[in-house]
Design a protein that fits this description.
It is built from 21 helices and 9 strands. The protein has 471 residues and is α/β, with parallel strands linked by helices. The termini are far apart. Helix 16 crosses helix 19.
Length: 471
């Protein structure tokens, strides 16, 4: 077999030919050369050359794994190369090729994570973490596993089990560093807590179907953190930094929001994981979750209401938490539901740029037109502070001629009704304590809410055919 003379000899040696690698010598050389070019950034010619090898149907998951295991022994993954490989694996032209790529990449990358972490544990960890190139290589390998484990529908059960077991064994071998109950000094080791959090995210996403008790045992979750995962399926990643009141608030809010609406996989607290200490802000990768701030409950307060109604001050910690969790509700139950998505978009179009036509009228003109993804979550800042006060605001605005806030309130209440004949009202104290009220509602023949039965009265609305309040 003759190798192309156009390929520089140095690049041909990027992945040394080996009898253990079933890819042909020519494909090994071509793919290795293309990957080295892609590691430095976008290169359309290199991308085409790599894809022509990666997507050959005759190459199996074992072939791909062996090739990438050899490549990763000699070269660290870069963010640019990882993005390319994940894109090819998730967008492969056939299910067979997709499975081969997803399995091969996840298994090779999990081996790379294992090898890199074991190289520094336990005695050389600090020197490893002091090297930004080593930290970056480890982080990128973990994020590749996270992307494919969470999004790769073709990833086989066997590959999931093997990768999970490898990473689980890594945690078990170094419990003083990698198990959950081991607190990290983020000032001395600014990368470790975040790397461990990503490792636990990888384990969470690899384990399908998700076995909560197995995950708790394998990662060392205990106390409130184990209960949050056991009861709500939510992994809290804070390096054990939230205090008891903050953890209680998380527990109460997760118990309040129906799990089918938010489907949150994790809640992270980046400032407790070392972000901003010696490195740029790095995001966790994998199944969807939210990030909040570790604001002390007693130290900061927010008022989610505009100035034309009485203020309701609640702790900023819970204001952020309810806002972020309702981004998840918006993602799954609004954007993921054709009826609710169309309704949200129509309400924003009706309200337009006028702040007075929004429940959250303190924001700039046109804010929700420019940032529609903030519309639903922003309403929650008022609704989850005091739903009764939010309804009062909507009714008073309607009587003053601004009709859209009432339509927005009914939309939010409808989402939280989940199609039933009652919805959820919430009141919150200045100590992040939530009280839940099941409020009966009625509907017209088209299913739109036209009645709300409060403890001392029933509010009735006349709707047009599209469900908008006219009086």
């Amino acid at each position: 077999m003759r190798l192309s003379s156009a390929l520089p000899a140095l690049l041909l040696l990027a992945v040394a030919p080996s009898a253990a690698l079933p890819l042909t010598l020519e494909d090994q050389a071509a793919l290795g050369a293309a990957l080295l070019r892609l590691a430095d950034g976008r290169d359309d010619d290199a991308a085409q050359a790599a894809a022509s090898v990666l997507e050959r149907p005759e190459y199996t998951a074992l072939d791909q794994r062996r090739f990438f295991a050899g490549y990763l022994e000699r070269h660290a993954l870069t963010p640019e190369l990882a993005r390319f490989l994940v894109g090819r694996a998730l967008g492969a032209p056939s299910a067979t090729t997709g499975r081969a790529l997803q399995d091969g990449l996840v298994l090779a990358a999990s081996e790379d994570v294992d090898r890199r972490l074991r190289a520094g544990l336990p005695d050389r960890l600090d020197s490893q973490l002091a090297d930004p190139h080593r930290v970056e290589a480890l982080r990128v390998a973990m994020t590749l596993v996270g992307r494919i484990a969470s999004e790769g529908e073709a990833l086989s059960a066997g590959a999931r089990r093997e990768a999970y077991q490898r990473l689980r064994n890594l945690v078990a071998a170094h419990p003083g560093v990698l198990r959950r109950q081991a607190r990290v000094d983020v000032e001395a080791r600014p990368h470790l807590a975040l790397l461990r959090a990503q490792l636990h995210k990888n384990l969470q996403d690899l384990l399908r179907p998700f076995d909560r008790e197995r995950f708790i045992a394998d990662t060392g979750l205990a106390g409130a953190y184990a209960e949050l995962l056991r009861n709500h399926g939510v992994l809290v990643l804070d390096d054990d930094g939230l205090d008891e009141r903050q953890r209680r608030a998380v527990q109460e809010l997760l118990a309040l929001i129906p799990p089918a609406l938010h489907r949150t996989a994790h809640i992270s607290v980046y400032d407790l994981l070392g972000n901003g200490r010696g490195s740029e802000t790095v995001q966790l990768v994998g199944s969807r979750g939210v990030n909040i701030a570790s604001l002390p409950i007693a130290a900061h307060a927010d008022n989610g209401f505009p100035g034309d109604v009485e203020a309701v001050a609640v702790p900023s910690f819970c204001s952020v938490l309810q806002h972020e969790l309702n981004h998840m509700v918006d993602h799954h139950a609004v954007s993921g539901n054709a009826k609710h998505r169309a309704r949200r978009d129509a309400l924003i179009a009706r309200a337009g740029d006028d702040p007075e036509q929004y429940l959250r009228s303190m924001l700039a003109p046109g804010y929700f037109v420019r940032y529609p993804q903030e519309f639903f979550a922003s309403i929650s800042n008022a609704y989850f502070s005091d739903s009764f006060q939010t309804l009062l605001l909507a009714v008073e605005r309607f009587e003053a001629g601004a009709r859209e806030p009432l339509n927005q309130f009914l939309f939010f209440a409808d989402v939280y009704s989940e199609g039933r004949d009652e919805t959820l009202f919430v009141r919150q104290t200045n100590d992040c304590e939530f009280s839940l009220h099941a409020v009966p509602i009625g509907r017209d023949e088209r299913g739109h809410i036209d009645r709300i039965r409060l403890p001392d009265t029933t509010l009735r609305f006349t709707l047009d055919e599209s469900g908008h309040v006219i009086r």
